[in-house]
Amino acid sequence: MRSLDVDVVVIGGGSTGVGVVRDVAMRGYKAVLVDRVDLAQGTSGRFHGLLHSGGRYVVSDPNSARECAEENVIITRIQAGAVETTGGLFVTGPDDDPEFGDKFLAGAAANGVAATEISIAEALAREPRLNPRIKRAVAVQDGSVDGWQLVWTAAQSAKEYGAEILTYHKVTSIERDGDTVSAVMCHDAKTGEDVRIGCHFVLNCAGAWAGEIAAMAGCHDVQVVPGRGIMVAMNHRLVNSVVNRMIYPSDGDIIVPVHTVCIIGTTDVKVPDPDHLPIPHDEVQQMFDAGEVLVPGFRNARALHVWAGARPLVKDSRVGAGDTRHMSRGMSVMDHTERDGLKGLLTISGGKLTTYRLMAEHIVNAMEEQLGTPHPCRTADEVCPSGTTKDATYVPENYHVTHRLHDREHDRMQDPILCECELLSRRMFTDKLAELPNASLDDLRRQLRLGMGPCQGGFCTVRATGVAHEGGTVDTERATGLLRLFLKHRWLGLWPILYGDQVRQTALDNWIFSGTLDVEHLPEGAEVV
Amino acid sequence: MFEPDSYEHDLLNRASLDHCVKCTICETQCPVAAVTPLFSGPKYVGPQAERFRHGASVDYSLDYCSSCGICTNVCPQGVHIAELNSVARAAMKKDHMPLRDQLISRTTFMGMAMTPVAPIANAVLKFKPARIAVEKVVGIHRDAAMPTAHTQTLVGWLRGRTAPKPGSRGKLIFFHGCAQNYFEVETGVKTIEVLEHLGFEVIVPKQGCCGLPLQSNGIFDTARVWVRKLVAQLREAPRDLPIISCSTSCGGMLKHEANEILGVKDADLLEVGGRMRDICEFLLEMYDNGELDTSDWLENELTVPYHAPCQLRGQNIGTPAVQLLELVPGITVVESGAYCCGIAGTYGLKKEKYEVAMKVGKPVFDKIVAVNEGIAACDSETCRWQIEQATSVPTVHPIAFIHQAMGLSKLPVTTGS
Amino acid sequence: MTNTVVIGAGLSGLVAAIRLARGGRTVTLLTKGLGGLQLSQGTIDVLGYAPERVDAPIDAIASLPATHPYRVLAPAAIAAGIAYAQELLGDRLVGNADRNVLLPTAVGALRPTCLVPPSMTAGVVTGGIRYVLVGFRQLKDFYPKLCAGNLERQTTPAGDPITARGIILDLPAIEDMADSSALAYARALDDPSYRAKLAAALKPLLQDGEVVGLPAILGHRDAGAHRHLEELLEHAVFEVPLPPPGVPGIRLNEALTALAKQAGVRIVAGAKVVGFESAGGKVISVGQATAGRIRQYAADAFVYAPGGFESGALTMDSYGTVTETIFGLPLHGLGPDLVTAGDPSDQALFRVGVGVDASMRVVDPAGHIPYSNLYAAGGILAGATRWTEKSGEGIALASAVAAADSILKGA
C-alpha cells in the first residue's frame, strides 16, 4: 500500500476537477487529483466540443448566457491550443418561427453576447453546405474546444504548481477523523496497488458520480440527475463554424466542427445510472433528421462515431422530474458541514464546460471560506501550461484545423506518419507514450486523436501497438491486449451509426484484422486497463 | 454557375472524400508518387488532407500532382481524388500564379503567335541558348518537349482545299482542338479524311480553346470563360450530331473535366459532352455495330507500341485504339504497360517538374524503344511530343494507321517489329 | 460484338472472364476499380475455420450451413475452381486443395490457408522451425518483434514449440525517405543491386538454420527476386502478408489481368455500372457511366461479380435498408439486428447478399429467378463471412468457374 499526504484531494478528473486542482495548487495548497479512469472520460470527454458564446441561453437561461460569454474569452486566451475560434451562426430553419430571432437578438444584447444579423447570402457564402432555405442568420462568437486538450493542459498547469494527477485511481472510501475528513482511499487500476491519501479537505467534483462519492463519506441523498445525450461525429467538416438552430433549445440543434470532424447533437433523457448510457436507435435517427434540416444531404455524408454523455444536473424544484434540459445549468456547491456534520468536504454539481474555470473559482473560494485562509484566484491571468515558455509576451496561437497538415508538410520525410487519417507522426506518439508509459491506446488516443479518423483504427492500430512494443516498455502480452481492447472500444461507437461508407470501411478493416492478420486467433493478451 | 466555394462545387468533390476507406489503391497506381517522395501521394493529398483544409493553403507539395487523373480512375469507391487535388491547387495558386503558367496555358495564343513565323519559331525552340534563356526567365525546362509550328493551320487547309462531295452517311462535327489546328495539322487532316472516306460529311465550326491548360494550371476563371465560348461555338452546328475529337485531352475536357473540376454545370456543356466521341471510340463502336467494313483494309505487318494516355483512361471507354488498330490485318499492338508519359499536359514543361516527369515517363519510353524503334502510337498530342523528345521514335495518332489501311497515305517510317 | 459482359475485376470477375473468353465467348469486362486482389494477401483460401481450425478444407465443407455458397454449389465445383486457378497461375501457386497450411501473420497469429505463392512456402509452420522476422525502420506496417513474440507463445499443431526472434534493419526503400509503403520496398527489390544491399545488411545478423521472414515486399514485377535473395542470404526466405497495399495480391492481379487481355477480354475500367435494361425476364444491357454519357453494353449473358459490402455493390443506408446497387436484386439473409455490439468481424449484415442456384443464376429467397441470363459470383454471394472463415478466394474461384461453365453450356 502506497501512502501520500496532501492538503486537498480533488475527486474527479473532468473539467471541474482539473479546474479546481489547478486553482487549489496555484493558491499554494499541496493537492492531488484522482479519477477512476483517464481524465475527461465522464461528461467532459463526451460533450459537443462547443465553447459557448452564450447565444444558446440568451432566452432560456440569461445568467448562463452572460457567464459563457465572459468565460469564452478567457478560455480562448489561457488555453489557446485547445480552442478553435471558428465563430458560429444561429440560423432559422425553413419551418422554424422567424420571430424567435428577435427574442434572440434582444436577449443577446441584454446579456453581453455578441450577435450580428447577416444576410442569407453571406451565411451561405460562409457555409456552402448550409440549407439554402434558411430564413434568418445571426453571427456569434462560438468556438470549438477539444475537451481532452482543455483538461490535460489545465492538469499540466496544476502539475507545474506541484499538484499530482493520479488517473486510474478509483476512490474506495473516504475516511474521517471525528467530524473532519482525514483521508481518501484509492485503488490503482494500472498497478493493482491500494493507495492511502491523507488530507484535510476533499473537493468532490465527480460530476454525474458525485452522489456516489458523497455517499462514501457517509453523506447520502446527494441528488445528481444524469441527463443522457448522444452525439454523432461526421467524417469531415460539413461546416466550419458552429451552426445552431435559432429556436428554443431542443434536440439535435447544433453542429460543431471539432478538429477534422463535425459533431451533431444532442438529446436529453434522464437516466438512473451514469455508467449505463445506451444509444437508442430512434435517437440516432433523430440526429440524422436534425442534421438534414441544417445541412441537406446530411444522410449521404459519412457518420463516423457516436457516443453518449451524461450531464450532471443538480435537482431543481422549478422543473419536472423527467425534463432535464430546462434544469438550471448553474452549479451548486454543497457544504456537508451542516447537512451531514462533516467538515472538509464540498460537493459540486451541475455546471458546463465553458464556465469550468469560473466554477472552480467559486468552489475554491468556498473551500477557503471554510478553512479561513483566503487567497486571490489567478487562474484567468495565466496561460496553461505556463511552463511552455518563460516569455511573458508569448501569445499562444489558437488551434486551427490546418495545423497538423502544415506540420507534416515539414517533417513527413523524416518522421513516419502512424495515424494517416489524423496526421499523427511517430514522434508525437512516442513522446506521449514516454510521458504515460502505462497508457492504453485509448488513453493515448484521447490526447493524440489516434484512430479517430475515417479508418477508425483500421491501419493505425497495428502501427501504434508495434511501436509501443518496440519501445521496450510494453511486452508482447500487454501489446496484444492493447490491440484487442482498442478495437473493441472503437466498435462500441461504430455499430449504432454504421451505414453507407462506414460499412465499407468496417468490411475493409475486417479484411485486415480478421482476414490478413487473424487477430482473433492470437494467443491471449494481458488484461489491459 | 459554379464557383469554387459554391454549395454545388463543394458537394461535388469535397463530399466525395467521405468514400475514402484508405485502401491505398490510388497510391499504388500514382505514377508520380512511384518515382519521387516529393509528392506524398493521391490518398494523402486528396481525401486525407482535404479534411484538414480551411482557408490558406499549407501543403505546397500538392503541386507535384501532375493531374493525370489515374487516381480517380482506379479508386474503387468513387472518390474524386484528382479533382480534389486540382481544386486545392487552384486555391493554393490563386494569389501567386507564375507568369510561366499563364503563358503555357494559352495554347491558342502560342499557336497564333508562332504560326505566321513558324520556321523561325521552330528554330528558336530548338536553339539551345534560347531555351536556356527561356528556362531562366520563364521556367520552362530547356529540354522539355515543345510543339512544332506549321505555316498552315488546319483551318487554313480546310479553306484552301476543294471540299469533297458529301457522302451519304450523314454529318458529323469535328472538334480539332488547338493542337490539331496549329501544331499537328496532319493528325486533324487524316481524321477528317478517314471520316470522309467512310462517307461522312464533316462540319468544322469556328472554334477556340477548351481551356484545359488553364484549368490544369489552376487558372479557373479564365478556363470557364473559354470553355463556355467553345461550347457555344460547337452548338452553332446542328445539335443532333456526334462531335468527333482526335485530341484525347480536349475531348475529355468537354466530356467531363469542365464539369468535375471547374464545376461548370451548364446544360449546354453537359449535352455537348454527351455527344463528344474520341475518334477511335467512334470507329470501334461503328465496328461493334457492324457498320465498319474493314474487308478492303491494306495489310501492314507491324508491331506497334501503343501508349494509352492518362486522360484517355479518365474517359472510361477502355482502350479502343488497341482493338481498332488490330482490325488492320498484320498489326499487333503492344501496350506501354504504364499510365503516364510524364508530360501530363503542361506539367513536364516546368523546370522544377521536368526531372520528375522524365522519371514518370521512363517505363513508357523504355517499353516503346524495346518494342519498335521505328514507330509508336498514342492518342494525345502532348504525349506524342514527349515520347518523341525522349525516345526519338516517331509517334503518331492511331488514326494514321487507319488512314494508311484505307489507302489514303503511307506512313513515313514503318520499320518492322 | 460482345456477347458476354462481366461486371467486376476481382478474382471472380477476372477468372470468369478468362474462362468465358477461352471457351469462345466474346467478353467485355466492366469495372470501376482494379479489384480486391490489390488489397489481398496473395494466397488462395479455401476454408480455414468452420469455426474451429480446418486441416482438410474440402472435407469440412459438409459441416457448413445449407445457405453457405459452398453448399449451394455442386460439390465438385470447389475443387474445379481451385484446379482452374492452378491451371491459370501455374507455378505462381503452390499447394494442394486437400490440405491447409499454417503461415504466421504479421502480428504473429497462425493462419490457415491453402495455396500460397512460392515466396511464402518456407514460412509454413512445421516442427522445429526457427524464425527470424526482419522488419525495416522505414516500413511502418510490420513489427517483427511483436510477430516473433506472439509466435513464441504458441506451438505447432503437433505441439512443438516455435522459436522466433525479430530484428529491424535501418534500410530505406528510397534514399532519405523515412516512410515507405510495402509496394515501394517491393519496387526497390525488383532491382538486383538493392537486393544485394539488403543481403549485405542482413546476412551478418542471421543464425544458422533460421528461416528468414521478411514482410511481403519480395519484388513487384521481378519474379526472380525471392530466389535471388535466398541465394544471396544462403537462407530460406519467405514473405509475411501485410495490410494493404498487398503486394502478393497485386502480383496475382497483374498476372490475371494480362491473361484476360491475352484471351481477348476487352476491359473497360474506371467507371461504375449504374443501370440496366431488361425485357422478357432477361437483362438486355447494362449502362456504364463513362465520361459524359452512360454507355450501354448489350450481351446475351451477364456475370455479376462486383464484390460485397467492401466494394459498395451492397450497401446499407442510414435507415438501415440494405440494397444491391445495380439491379436491385432480392437479397438473402435480411432480418432484424443486422449490426450489433459484439464482434465487428461477425455481424449478420455481412452475410447478406445475392442468392444463387447451383447454376449460379441469381435467385430470390423463394427460389425464383428474376433474370434468366444473370449470374453472380464471388463476394456478392450471401451466406459466408469470408474473412473469418478464410474462404474468400475459394468461393470466388468456385462460383466464377461454375458461372462461366453454365454460360458456356448454353443453359
Describe it for me?
- The complex is a heterotrimer of chains A (529), B (417) and C (411).
- Chain A has helices at 15-26, 62-78, 100-110, 120-126, 147-160, 210-216, 281-294, 336-340, 356-371, 403-411, 426-435, 441-448, 460-470, 476-492, 501-516, and strands spanning 2-5, 8-11, 31-34, 50-51, 83-84, 88-92, 115-118, 136-140, 143-145, 164-166, 169-177, 180-188, 194-198, 201-204, 224-234, 242-245, 254-258, 261-265, 269-270, 303-314, 331-335, 345-350, 417-419, 424-425.
- By secondary structure, chain A is α+β, with helices and mostly antiparallel strands.
- Among the domains of chain A are: 84-140 and 225-314, D-Amino Acid Oxidase, Chain A, domain 2, CATH 3.30.9.10; 403-521, no CATH class.
- Chain B is α/β, with parallel strands linked by helices.
- Among the domains of chain B are: 7-93, Fumarate Reductase Iron-sulfur Protein, Chain B, domain 2, CATH 1.10.1060; 290-405, Rossmann fold (3-Layer(aba) Sandwich), CATH 3.40.50.
- Helices cover 47% and strands 8% of the residues of chain B.
- Chain B contains 22 helices and eight strands.
- In chain B, the strands form two sheets. Chain B has a four-stranded parallel β-sheet with strand order 2-1-3-4, with helices on both faces. In chain B, strands 6-5-7-8 form a four-stranded parallel β-sheet.
- Chain B is globular, with a radius of gyration of 21 Å.
- The termini of chain B are far apart.
- In chain B, 59% of the residues are buried.
- Chain C is an alpha/beta fold.
- The longest helix of chain C has 17 residues, at 392-408.
- Helices cover 26% and strands 21% of the residues of chain C.
- The interface between A and C is large, with 55 and 57 residues.
Helices, strands, pairings?
The complex is a heterotrimer of chains A (529), B (417) and C (411).
Chain A (H helix, E strand, L loop, with lengths): L1 E4 L2 E4 L3 H12 L4 E4 L15 E2 L10 H17 L4 E2 L3 E5 L7 H11 L4 E4 L1 H7 L9 E5 L2 E3 L1 H14 L3 E3 L2 E9 L2 E9 L5 E5 L2 E4 L5 H7 L7 E11 L7 E4 L8 E5 L2 E5 L3 E2 L10 H14 L8 E12 L16 E5 H5 L4 E6 L5 H16 L31 H9 L5 E3 L4 E2 H10 L5 H8 L11 H11 L5 H17 L8 H16 L13
Chain B lengths: L6 H6 L12 H5 L12 H9 L19 H5 L6 H13 L5 H6 L2 H8 L3 H9 L1 H11 L15 H7 L9 E6 L1 H7 L1 H13 L2 E4 L8 H5 L3 H15 L8 E3 L2 H13 L6 H9 E3 H10 L13 E6 L2 H4 L6 H6 L5 E5 L18 H18 L4 E3 L2 H11 L3 E2 L2 H7 L12
Parallel strand pairs in B: 1-2, 1-3, 3-4, 5-6, 5-7, 7-8
Chain C lengths: L3 E4 L3 H12 L4 E5 L25 H4 L8 H4 L2 H15 L11 E4 L5 E4 L16 E7 L7 H8 L11 E7 L12 H7 L3 H11 L8 E5 L9 H9 L3 E4 L6 H16 L3 E4 L3 E7 L2 E9 L2 E6 L2 E4 L9 E3 L5 E3 L6 E2 L20 E4 L5 E2 L10 E3 L9 H4 L2 H17 L3
Parallel strand pairs in C: 1-2, 1-13, 2-9, 5-6, 5-7, 7-8, 13-19
Antiparallel strand pairs in C: 3-4, 10-11, 11-12, 14-15, 16-17, 17-18
